[in-house]
Design brief:
about 280 residues; alpha+beta; D-amino Acid Aminotransferase, Chain A, domain 1; D-amino Acid Aminotransferase, Chain A, domain 2; 6-stranded antiparallel β-sheet; globular
Length: about 280
């Protein structure tokens, strides 16, 4: 079940000429709503602001956006304890063709979706993953952003139909580990926490940022750099971050198994103490 709103009014149609439909021209944020409140809201706004600047879209009024989000959540009261809000910023209707005037005045839509918590045993035992065959293009002009064009993730995620796992991990065209189809990835090697650099492709997740800042606030360094695929398999632990589930340990990637996750447990405890309640195992 989902509900959509535009300008604090119920909406269920979008123009077929809208650039979001025609070209995937726009951005989106998926916000965890817990107890009626948006989690990591400021981080979402930071990424949305960066995305609008990069795509030359006029940034929505952020105070009005929060009021519209609160309205959408209030109108979905039966879901507000645990749900997801999706904010879509579209470049709207324009003349046919790729080019558009810049900066472009955007149209904003907000959807509220019922979601179920991730099963407790996955936080306890870890999740199964695999490396996807689909490779991410290098040096994307939209690296780090959550644009409406997610075809690489669609292709990568669709591989799990024949190979059921919780998450697929993606490499770029130079065989460097980047992220999951819906998550960011961290590895632990010799007690050092490492996460792939995303300057060439991938999405800079808000929970990834929160994890990095939480660790650094606790005097734990995080190394952000290129990570080759073989380093993933040689690592001592692996964990995933995502705005909805927080932090999850990885139990398996293909044939590689990580039976213990002591460092990941410490990270989860810190994240739980910082307000990501799902991580309290």
């Amino acid at each position: 079940m989902s509900r959509w709103f535009h300008d604090s009014k119920a909406a269920d149609v979008v123009s077929i000429d809208d650039r979001a439909f025609q070209y995937g021209d726009g951005l989106f944020e998926t916000v965890a709503i817990r107890g009626g409140e948006p989690r990591l809201w400021d981080y979402h706004l930071d990424r949305l602001t960066m995305g609008c600047q990069r795509l030359q879209i006029t940034l929505p009024d952020l105070r009005l956006l929060r009021k519209q989000l609160d309205y959408a959540v209030a109108k979905s009261a039966e879901m507000r304890a645990h749900c997801t809000a999706k904010i879509v910023v579209s470049c709207g209707v324009s003349a046919r063709g790729y080019a558009r005037e810049t900066p472009t005045l955007a149209k904003t839509y907000i959807g509220v979706f019922a979601t179920l918590p991730v099963a407790a045993e996955l936080y306890r035992d870890g999740v199964a993953t695999r490396v996807c065959d689909t490779r991410l293009a290098l040096f994307s002009a939209t690296a780090g952003l959550k644009t409406l064009n997610r075809l690489e993730q669609v292709l990568a995620r669709s591989e799990s139909v024949d190979h059921p796992v919780f998450e697929g991990l993606t490499l770029d065209a130079s065989e460097q580990l980047i992220c999951g189809t819906m998550s960011n990835v961290f590895i632990v090697s010799n007690q050092t926490i490492i996460t792939p650099s995303l300057h060439r492709c991938g999405v800079e997740g808000v929970m990834r940022r929160h994890a990095i800042e939480t660790l650094r606030a606790n005097d734990i360094a995080v190394d952000i750099r290129d990570v080759a695929e073989d380093e993933l398999y040689r690592s001592d632990e692996v964990f995933l971050t995502n705005s909805q589930f927080g932090v999850l340990p990885v139990r398996r990637c293909g044939e590689k198994v990580w039976p213990q996750h002591p460092v990941t447990r410490k990270v989860m405890t810190m994240m739980a103490e910082g307000g990501v309640a799902e991580c309290a195992v």
